Amino acid sequence: LMGRALLRTGDQEGAAKAFATELANNPNDFQANLEIGDLRKREQKFDEAEPYIRRALRMRPHDPTARFSLAGLHVSRGDTEQARGVLETIVADSPTFTEAYVLLATVYYRLQRREDGDRMRAVIEKLNAEAQAKQPGAKAADAAAAGASATAPTPPPSSTTPPPTPGAPPR
After folding, report:
1. If you average pLDDT over residues 50-67, what whole number do you get?
2. Where are the alpha helices (DSSP H) in 27-137?
3. Neighbour count for residue 119 (Cβ, 10 Å)
4. 94 Cβ contact partners less than 8 Å away, ≥ 6 residues apart
């Protein structure tokens, strides 16, 4: 708990110490293992990160955040095929995990699979639109916009034609 609070304040060093203290008391603390693994990964200490992430995965093998951390580690190391397999499983199991779709799209593009990457981008746009629609005030804003457009007067058709664009064929 203390480590996560320190992370939110930007104190990564303090967070790492708090997580290490927690692991000294309880080496099987899922969150502490995952957080230290992610911290090491961000520091590009991939060999140090992996045991923590894998320990978290042994405790919760189907946890999408732990699998996502492993996929991110694979991407960071350039193991895109391994990352692809992990990410495809995550999005199949957790179809609203937007970050997994983002990373999977990146992996597809790196693997020269543009069509698959574009398909993931479409899913991301859909998930983002759904999340935005759920935000407080979204329905009120949509209703206000719909009401404004329904009551807004339609401008009369223009009786003048715009000047021709230079170099364009005549109308």
Report:
1. 97
2. 30-42, 46-59, 64-77, 80-93, 98-110, 114-133
3. 15
4. 64, 100
Task: Note whether 87 and 104 are within 8 A (CB).
Answer: yes
CB under 8 Å to 50, separation ≥6 — which residues?
37, 73
Using an 8 Å Cβ cutoff, are 120 and 97 in contact? Answer: no
Burial code of 72-84, b = ≥16 C-beta within 10 A, e = fewer? bbbbebeebebbb
Q: Can you tell me the distance from the alpha carbon of 116 to that of 144, in angstroms, rounded to the nearest whole number? A: 37
Backbone dihedral angles phi then psi of residue 72, each to the nearest 5 degrees: -60, -35
pTM of the shown model: 0.75
In this prediction, residues 24-40 reach a mean pLDDT of 93
Residue-averaged pLDDT of the chain: 85
Nearest by Cα to 118 from 128, 126, 109, 129: 109
Return the number of other C-beta atoms located less than 10 Å from residue 66's C-beta.
Answer: 24
- Tell me the two tokens of residue 4: 């996560």
Q: What is the largest CA-CA distance in the chain?
A: 81
Tokens (6 digits) for 134: 């759920």
